[in-house]
């Protein structure tokens, strides 16, 4: 069922207040105003005294039988004539003066008892004729009751109760309430009421309401004091009549006409809102079904609707009640409201005849108007599905839409206002008189409904005072209180089954449009808006004006007075601004509820845009008005909904944002609007505009609505300077953490988008808006907020490395730019951009870097989330490729990061917390990104020193030189006290990246792997000793290597033979180094010459022995000497005698004995050799064989040489143990090869997985969604473009990095032919992980993008080692768990686990940790070892319909997202623990972003994407990738038990030492090294 069905019977209120759907029916208004003859008694013909005596005597006797003083007796009246005579007397008694209270009371009691004749069981005292024809007599009694409520003859109309005393007031009020309660109860319980009786009852209630409420309000008169009660009874009984005897059209017409006579009563609007909401709640139930959000109203209000009311009756009643006040916009027109008989009578009879519209009671019209519009807005909310629980008693002082636009975080206030109806007034429904009726400070008059706590001044509408009577219906968007109080922190979603915008506008649009134009320059007529000056050409002195062109009744001023000066101060046009703001807010909500593909009539769009243009008008003092605030608070989605032509409002919204965002001290007209929420809504709007200038570029923005032509043709590109300045200035003055994060995301988007746009095509970006007067409005209050215009002086003093980078001339130039150009005053810092286009990507890069670095260290350093967002932005800036990047700016950014780390580490111990250390870790990671992206920074000596000092600070806890001039402390002199183990780990990772990756990443082989892909098997295949063949197991290969562990953290695998491609006979060793940061293969040779000289033969070939000659020659007997003879003549000194002679050594007997023994051995050996020579000569005839040089040695103990040369073996270590530096491993033990493989499967980088889905419009099942990507015809081409921008395609079988599933990661295999065959014409299914994935990596992280399909068949079971003892060493695990799972173990395990990083060289600590870990594991429940990597689920959805994101089948889709890291049970993670990035393609080619994350996560708001942001296609891939990485990084930072990859690898090495170490003494180790290597 659609709301459009009601429009078929919608009355046309534009023609006349009294027209519409009842125009063909007669009205009964004259009957109730002129009185009924049946209410006149015959005793009225006699003197008052005579009639009074008769009435007193008769009534007293009748009341005696009722049973109040004694038991009830049957009535003595037995005939109709007797009863009718008595009723004449009672009728007269009701009209007696109030001082005859006893008689009036008895009359009331008699009738109230007699009316029980209509009850199922009448009372005993009811006369028999009355019981026989109860309806007839009931109608007469009801008519007689009228005398109780009308003024008495001879009394002043104002009914001056004050002269009668408080007791008289109370007793009279009790009687009125008794009658009303009796009639209400009668209508509820009686089943025998005829239509005539129902009509009489309703006419009676209309008559007494008209009598009491139609006159102008006078404080404390009877109408003022009883209006709450008589109205509530009227509305409740009318609802009962709708259910049991639907009122006739004349009654409805009379009801509507009389209600319009009471519109100056606040209570009427309150009751109207109350009944309308109760009916709306029931209407929604059967129109939209149980799945539609329930409009939760107080139980008391829900009971207003009778139980048996049919759906059709509810619909008819709702529509009629809704229109019983006529056009609510007329409430802002005093001339219309006061155009009644009672007001005219008052003006005539008053002493000073004045215009009726100047009665003081009309001062409440602004508040009444506001309440009526709030009631309509509340119904709009209900139809949109924004139906949250609310309380009449507890309403915050800000509107609920103030909170709605606040995104995920809002701040509810505690201010409350009077309920509707107030609780003290509701007590009157069951009131009984008590002498001391004062409860909790509420006076007796309040308890019976005679309260005077309401204000009649409109000041309550703007004061936000809790005591003011702002007790209206639901709020839409004013600064005042709301009936539908959200109470939550998130903006409620719209109902998927909500009606179309056109339907709601058909129903409420005319009222809201007209109310939205109150006080604007355009006067709204019934059929459209007209300029005010055009409408006032033929303005008449009369209060009404007829527009002959449109034949519609309209007003050019609220009071329609001849002179505006005649309007009372309380009724000036600005007093209605709160109601107008409410109407504008409701309209914004309606249009922002547009669904994907929904059409809105152009006439509605035109009216809406015109209303917004007028509402966004900025006053002269640049104050944020209520209408401006209401529009901003409720139109966050306006520019991301594909509304036709909405771009014409862009300049007007930018004008409004320039009022709100750059101002630190925002001037708000209404103090109850939360500045934080207003700024948040404004930021949402800004984030939806940032990409428009570069997207539409030179398209012209059309002017409309009589806009100034001085602006000239305005293009989108000309708006970019204003948007960028808005962004920079807003970020500079922002103090709310969430708002700051949103702005940081927008800033990175702007820089990224500009850089890519400039790289793809040259973009013309003007510095200023040509000829635009609006540019002067950007910051006209520059003198008030000078801090937001240029670099503050305290920032100028901060420079890189203590040197002043800013010269005085530059400072002067910076300060002078505030007046140099139209946009110069908006620049945060101008001096770095001299000579640059201020809107280029480079200029934005510089401005962003400066601003974020300054604010990070000055005001954001204590906030975890903002610090993380700022560091994420800086990391994103580092990755952006900008052609003109200045090395000095990058150097300055790194210096700021280092200063930030130093400051955080130097904070006092009480400030050190998990959050603080998380920011330090993130800063180290950010610094690594900068250095890898800009390796030239480390060529600067100062920058290198700064970075390494910070690394030293992170690892050791202090610097070697804390202050210039202090002596340098060496490493062994410092005490090792890092800020925390997490900080130490992060500093170690940065140091490794500096030493290994900066300047070398990516390697020539690509970014897929940081380490060598060679292992034992691959190396052994290339050795000369390998015989060949395909069968080579890892066990066989491992046996050929020798394994040692150095420093308890690095595994050395030594192969003591050259590889097959090396023919040089040099000592060669091949080393596989497995450390915390990867696996590396090195081949080393011991060379005595450089490689380029190694080919030269340094020895001559053997020339052979010369031919023997017969002439032996003369033999000379010469005594040979070792030294020349003259040496003996040189005098010796002490140095010559420093080497003792052999003879002096023989003085020691022991030495002499040894010498003698040695001499004996030499002599024996000489004799043996001589004998052997002689024997040889005898055996052979020839001479001795030739002496030839031995062949070159090809066998070396290279392992020993390598270890010795690198210092791992020491000849001084004769004590018997090798110490902790070198440990040999026993490779023959079972499990060694498996554990070595587990170590190789531990990446040194973080690995994350993002699963991407394409959702076509209306799809709700996982099978449909997964099958979309099988063909390119079922997906958008932009989706395929987006996939390619996420990363590059890799083959999972030949890819050495992370592939999205642990079974295929970090290994290179050969695929089968079927697996290698990639699908053609796919829509993304090729990247499902079977053969290909999309991959991206940097030096510290890698991420895989997988597009799941129906044929994805990865095993859910984990592929990691379930028998590994890693948990023994690492305490509660290496992986990232949810907060709920890890909190229970934090205290007992984290500290002991983390001490391993400091005590890596202490086997005792390692052993104890292992024992404790093992004990905990066996003592607890049986569980599999945790996976060594995080398993944060990040899902990206490309949706064709934005509404589909509310009904994703996440539970089913998660089954297609297994990565092997889910844990031992293979349990699919909870859908509430996933991060969702929803991308919705707009018709303009841009994309709208929707983010969802786990509830309660403190660090889940990762940037740069922000919920609601509009992104260009060119920047989409990078933004999504960075957001996914940052989500996973924040989750890791927030997890106490997470350990970085290099620490996990180090712990695994320690585990290898514990399990496979060889217990060798030092001699045994040397013996092991001197032995031959295994073959």
Oligomer status: single chain
- Uncertain runs are 1-16, 154-164, 389-490, 532-565, 763-835, 1214-1219, 1351-1428
How much of the polypeptide forms β-strand, as a percent range?
5-15%
By DSSP (H or I, 4+ residues per run), the number of helices equals 54
The largest sheet has its strands arranged as: 13-14-15-12-16-17-18-19
N- to C-terminal distance: 86 Å
Average residue pLDDT: 74
Report the radius of gyration as a whole number of Å.
47 Å
Report the biggest beta sheet as strand number plus sense, adding barrel if it closes: 8 strands, mixed
List its salient traits.
alpha+beta, eight-stranded mixed beta sheet, five-stranded antiparallel beta sheet, elongated, disordered N terminus
Describe the structure.
The strands form five sheets. The chain has an eight-stranded mixed beta sheet. It has a five-stranded antiparallel beta sheet with strand order 10-9-8-7-11. Helices cover 42% and strands 6% of the residues. Helix 21 (501-516) runs antiparallel to helix 23. The protein is built from 54 helices and 19 strands. A hairpin with a 3-residue loop joins strand 14 (1332-1337) and strand 15. The two termini are 86 Å apart. The protein is α+β, with helices and mostly antiparallel strands and 1575 residues long.
């Amino acid at each position: 069922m659609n709301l459009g069905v009601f429009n078929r019977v919608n009355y046309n209120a534009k023609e006349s207040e009294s027209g519409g759907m009842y125009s063909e029916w007669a009205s009964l208004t004259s009957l109730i105003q002129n009185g009924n003859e049946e209410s006149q008694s015959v005793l009225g013909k006699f003197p008052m005294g005579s009639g009074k005596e008769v009435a007193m005597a008769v009534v007293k006797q009748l009341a005696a039988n009722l049973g109040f003083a004694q038991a009830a007796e049957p009535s003595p009246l037995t005939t109709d004539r007797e009863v009718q005579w008595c009723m004449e007397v009672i009728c007269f008694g009701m009209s007696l003066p109030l001082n005859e209270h006893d008689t009036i009371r008895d009359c009331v009691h008699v009738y109230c008892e007699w009316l029980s004749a209509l009850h199922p069981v009448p009372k005993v005292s009811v006369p028999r004729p009355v019981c026989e024809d109860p309806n007839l007599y009931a109608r007469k009694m009801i008519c007689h009751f009228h005398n109780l409520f009308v003024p008495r003859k001879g009394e002043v109309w104002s009914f001056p109760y004050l002269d009668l005393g408080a007791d008289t007031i109370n007793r009279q009020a009790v009687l009125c309430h008794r009658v009303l309660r009796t009639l209400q109860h009668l209508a509820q319980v009686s089943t025998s009421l005829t239509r005539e009786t129902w009509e009489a009852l309703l006419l009676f209630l209309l008559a007494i309401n008209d009598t009491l409420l139609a006159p102008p309000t006078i404080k404390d008169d009877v109408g003022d004091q009883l209006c709450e009660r008589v109205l509530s009874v009227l509305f409740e009984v009318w609802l009962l009549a709708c259910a049991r005897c639907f009122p006739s059209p004349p009654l409805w017409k009379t009801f509507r006409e009389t209600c319009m006579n009471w519109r100056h009563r606040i209570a009427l609007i309150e009751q109207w809102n109350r009944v309308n909401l109760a009916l709306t709640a029931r209407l929604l139930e059967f129109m939209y079904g149980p799945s539609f959000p329930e409009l939760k109203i107080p139980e008391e209000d829900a009971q207003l609707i009778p139980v048996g009311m049919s759906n059709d009756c509810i619909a008819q009643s709702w529509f009629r009640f809704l229109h019983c006040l006529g056009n609510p916009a007329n409430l802002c027109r005093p001339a219309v409201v006061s155009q009644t008989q009672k007001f005219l009578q008052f003006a005539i009879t008053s002493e000073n005849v004045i215009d009726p519209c100047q009665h003081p009671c009309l001062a409440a019209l602004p508040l009444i108007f506001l309440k009526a519009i709030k009631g309509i807005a509340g119904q709009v909310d209900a139809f949109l599905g924004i139906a949250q629980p609310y309380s009449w008693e507890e309403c915050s002082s800000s509107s609920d839409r103030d909170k709605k636009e606040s995104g995920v975080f809002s701040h509810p206030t505690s201010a409350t206002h009077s309920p509707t109806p107030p609780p003290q007034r509701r007590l009157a429904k069951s009131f009984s008189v008590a002498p001391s009726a004062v409860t909790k400070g509420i006076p007796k008059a309040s308890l019976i409904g005679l309260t005077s706590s309401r204000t009649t001044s409109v000041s309550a509408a703007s004061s936000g005072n809790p005591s003011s009577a702002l007790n209206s219906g639901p709020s839409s968007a004013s600064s005042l209180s709301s009936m539908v109080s959200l109470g939550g922190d998130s903006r409620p979603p719209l109902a998927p089954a909500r009606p179309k915008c056109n339907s709601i506008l058909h129903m409420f649009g005319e009222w809201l449009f007209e109310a939205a134009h109150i006080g604007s320059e355009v006067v709204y007529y019934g059929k459209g808006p007209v300029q005010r000056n055009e409408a006032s050409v033929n303005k008449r002195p009369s209060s009404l004006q007829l527009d002959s062109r449109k034949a519609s009744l309209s007003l050019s001023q609220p009071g329609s007075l001849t002179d505006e000066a005649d309007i009372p101060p309380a009724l000036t046009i600005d007093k209605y601004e709160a109601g107008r703001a409410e109407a504008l807010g409701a309209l914004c909500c309606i249009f922002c509820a547009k669904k994907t593909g929904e059409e809105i009539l152009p006439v509605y769009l035109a009216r809406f845009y015109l209303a917004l243009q007028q509402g966004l008008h900025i006053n002269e003092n640049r104050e944020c008005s209520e209408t401006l605030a209401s529009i901003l608070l409720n139109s966050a989605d306006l520019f991301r909904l594909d509304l036709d032509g909405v771009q014409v409002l862009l300049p007007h919204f930018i004008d409004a944002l320039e009022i709100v965002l750059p101002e630190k001290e925002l001037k708000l007209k209404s103090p109850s609007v939360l500045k934080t929420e207003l700024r948040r809504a404004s930021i949402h709007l800004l984030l939806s505009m940032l990409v428009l200038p570069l997207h539409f570029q030179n398209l012209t923005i059309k002017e409309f609505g009589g806009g100034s032509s001085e602006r000239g043709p305005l293009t989108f590109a000309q708006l970019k300077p204003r948007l960028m300045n808005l962004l920079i200035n807003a970020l500079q003055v922002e103090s709310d953490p969430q708002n700051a994060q949103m702005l940081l995301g927008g800033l990175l988007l702007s820089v990224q988008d500009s850089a890519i746009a400039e790289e793809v095509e040259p973009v013309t970006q003007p510095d200023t808006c040509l000829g635009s007067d609006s540019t002067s409005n950007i910051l006209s209050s520059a003198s008030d907020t000078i801090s937001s215009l240029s670099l503050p002086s305290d920032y100028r003093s901060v420079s890189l490395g203590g040197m002043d980078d800013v010269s005085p001339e530059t400072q002067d130039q910076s300060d002078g730019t505030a007046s140099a150009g139209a946009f110069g005053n908006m620049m945060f810092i101008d001096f770095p951009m001299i000579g640059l286009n201020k809107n280029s990507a480079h200029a934005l890069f510089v401005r962003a870097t400066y601003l974020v670095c300054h604010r990070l260290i000055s005001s954001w350093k204590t906030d975890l989330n903002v610090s993380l967002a700022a560091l994420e932005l800086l990391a994103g800036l580092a990755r952006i490729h900008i052609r003109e990047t200045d090395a000095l700016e990058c150097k300055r950014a790194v210096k700021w990061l280092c200063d930030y780390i130093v400051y955080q580490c130097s904070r006092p111990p009480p400030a050190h917390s998990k959050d603080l250390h998380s920011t330090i870790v993130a800063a180290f990671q950010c610094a690594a990104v900068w250095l890898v992206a800009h390796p030239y920074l480390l060529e600067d000596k100062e920058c290198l020193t700064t970075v390494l000092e910070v690394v030293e600070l992170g690892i050791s806890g202090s610097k070697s030189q804390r202050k210039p001039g202090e002596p340098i402390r060496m490493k062994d002199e410092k005490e090792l006290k890092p800020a925390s183990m997490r900080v130490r780990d992060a500093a170690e990772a940065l140091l490794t990246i500096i030493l290994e990756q900066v300047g070398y990443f990516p390697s020539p082989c690509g970014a897929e792997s940081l380490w060598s892909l060679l292992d034992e098997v691959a190396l052994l295949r290339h050795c000369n000793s390998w015989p060949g063949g395909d069968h080579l197991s890892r066990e066989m290969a491992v046996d050929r290597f020798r394994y040692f562990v150095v420093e308890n953290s690095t595994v050395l695998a030594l192969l003591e033979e050259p590889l097959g491609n090396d023919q040089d006979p040099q000592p060669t060793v091949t080393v596989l180094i497995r450390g915390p940061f990867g696996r590396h293969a090195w081949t080393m040779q011991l060379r005595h010459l450089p490689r380029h000289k190694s080919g030269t033969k340094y020895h001559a070939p053997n020339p052979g022995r010369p031919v023997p000659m017969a002439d032996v020659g003369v033999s000379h007997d010469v005594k040979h000497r070792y030294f020349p003879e003259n040496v003996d003549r040189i005098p010796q000194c002490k140095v010559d005698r420093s080497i003792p002679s052999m003879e002096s050594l023989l003085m020691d007997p022991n030495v002499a004995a040894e010498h003698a023994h040695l001499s004996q051995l030499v002599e024996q050996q000489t004799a043996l050799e001589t004998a052997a020579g002689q024997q040889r000569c005898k055996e052979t005839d020839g001479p001795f064989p030739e002496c030839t040089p031995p062949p070159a040695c090809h066998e070396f103990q290279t392992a020993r040489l390598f270890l010795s040369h690198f210092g791992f073996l020491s000849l001084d270590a004769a004590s018997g143990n090798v110490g902790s530096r070198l440990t040999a491993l026993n490779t023959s033990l079972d499990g060694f090869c498996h554990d070595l493989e587990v170590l190789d499967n531990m990446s040194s980088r973080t690995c994350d997985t993002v699963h991407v889905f394409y959702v076509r419009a209306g799809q709700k099942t996982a099978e449909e969604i997964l099958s979309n990507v099988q063909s390119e015809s079922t997906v958008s081409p932009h989706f395929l473009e987006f996939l390619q921008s996420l990363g590059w395609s890799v083959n999972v079988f030949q890819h050495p990095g992370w592939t999205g599933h642990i079974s295929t990661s970090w290994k290179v295999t050969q695929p089968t032919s079927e697996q290698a065959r990639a699908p053609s014409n796919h829509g993304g299914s090729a990247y499902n992980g079977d053969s290909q994935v999309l991959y991206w990596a940097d030096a510290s992280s890698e991420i895989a993008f997988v597009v799941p399909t129906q044929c994805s068949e990865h095993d859910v079971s984990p592929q990691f080692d379930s028998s590994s003892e890693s948990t023994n060493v690492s305490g509660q695990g290496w992986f990232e768990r949810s907060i709920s799972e890890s909190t229970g173990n934090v205290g007992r395990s984290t500290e002991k686990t983390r001490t391993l990083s400091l005590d890596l060289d202490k086997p005792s600590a390692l052993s104890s940790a292992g024992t404790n870990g093992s004990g905990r594991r066996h003592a607890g429940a049986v569980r599999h070892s945790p996976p060594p990597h995080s398993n944060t689920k990040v899902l990206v959805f490309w949706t064709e319909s934005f509404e589909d994101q509310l009904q994703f089948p996440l539970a089913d889709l998660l089954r297609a997202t297994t990565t092997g890291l889910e844990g031992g049970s293979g349990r699919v993670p909870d859908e509430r623990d996933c991060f969702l990035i929803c991308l919705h393609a707009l018709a303009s080619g841009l994309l709208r972003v929707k983010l969802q994350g786990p509830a309660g996560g403190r660090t889940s708001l990762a940037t740069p994407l922000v919920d609601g942001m509009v992104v260009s296609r060119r920047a989409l891939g990078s933004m999504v990738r960075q957001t996914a990485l940052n989500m996973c990084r924040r989750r890791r930072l927030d997890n106490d038990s997470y350990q970085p990859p290099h620490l996990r690898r180090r712990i695994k090495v320690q585990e290898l030492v514990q399990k496979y170490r060889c217990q060798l003494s030092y001699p045994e180790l040397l013996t092991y090294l001197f032995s031959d290597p295994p073959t």
